[in-house]
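Researcher: Please predict.
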Amino acid sequence: MPLPNRIRPDGSLFADPARGTLFGNRGGRFHDPATRALPKRLYATKQWICCVLAFKGRQRDVWGRYYTELFFCDEVTALAAGHRPCMECRRKDALAYREALVAGRGLKRLPLFPEIDERLDRERRDGRAKRLHRLPAEGLPDGAMIAAPEGEFLALRGDRALLWSPAGYVATRPRPAGLVEVATPPSSLSALVNGYRPLWHPSATAAG
């Protein structure tokens, strides 16, 4: 049975056979290694990162004594959930993300990553609930994730909206217009607008 360590674009955990293309963590362990059941807590610290699946041959005992490993369909999903690129295994991407975020938010100085984590935490959560941002669809960048009224999630790519699933994008719809509920935090939206290119699931090319 798969563990409940897959992540939806709203940041919630669930179990699914699809492994995804990236993994990450939320700053430590927040699961019970004895039961490995769906945890009540959502995170250990405010450092929510997304990582490559393999790095320097390291082996992990998933949901063991150490941190709580999480798996994402792709980086578009991870950004929507409120994660950012890892500075260790994805250093180049993390620096590019920060540079684009700084440009997009008009910051006067280069923030440390803990400061970015604090900013993202304010933008991604309303207590235990996911914070959604009501914004005009026309100004959203590729890679933004929308929460649809039917409980579905749509990733914007070109003139289309791609229907999200744990295993990839499974259908296309016309790009929406007007005000929409956006899952991707504003700081990550700014990074996308200013040139950060997230890692898409391979199905996005076929779907869109």
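Model: The two ends are 32 Å apart (CA to CA).
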